[in-house]
Amino acid sequence: MRPRPFFQYVIGSFVQLAPGSPMQRVVWRGRQLVPSVTGRQPYEVPVYHLDNGHWDCYYEHELQPALRPKGE
């Protein structure tokens, strides 16, 4: 069995923050170290920057895939 890739989305993927929200493109992805709530070692999670005009990064679990607009 192959291990799951760390990132679900590649740069250029279209994603949405919520169903019915505007589509946005992934322009950067990286890793963020987050503390464990159980007191164990911190662990890395995937984060993404979108082309939505904000400097925010979003956790992978906040995103969902979106269909590409026709003609792109």
Structural overview:
The protein has no helices and five strands. The chain is an all-beta fold. The chain is 0% helix and 38% strand. The mean pLDDT is 89. It has a five-stranded antiparallel sheet with strand order 4-3-2-1-5, with no helix packed on it. A hairpin with an 8-residue loop joins strand 2 (24-34) and strand 3. It has one domain.
- Biggest sheet statistics: 5 strands, antiparallel
Give the termini distance in whole angstroms. Answer: 34 Å
Report the portion of residues in β strands: 35-45%
With helices defined by DSSP (H or I, 4 residues minimum), what is the helix count? 0
State the low-pLDDT regions, or none: none
Instruction: Please give the domain count.
Output: 1
Which structural class do the helices and strands define? mainly beta
SSE order in H/E notation?
A: EEEEE
**Spatial extent as radius of gyration:** 14 Å
Q: How would you state the average pLDDT, rounded?
A: 89
Strand order of the largest sheet: 4-3-2-1-5
Global morphology? globular
Give the beta-strand count.
5
Helix percent reads under 10%
In short:
The chain has 72 residues and is mainly beta. It contains no helices and five strands. A hairpin with a 7-residue loop joins strand 1 (14-16) and strand 2 (24-34).
Reconstruct the topology from this structure.
Layout: E1 14-16, E2 24-34, E3 43-50, E4 57-59, E5 64-65
Antiparallel strand pairs: 1-2, 1-5, 2-3, 3-4
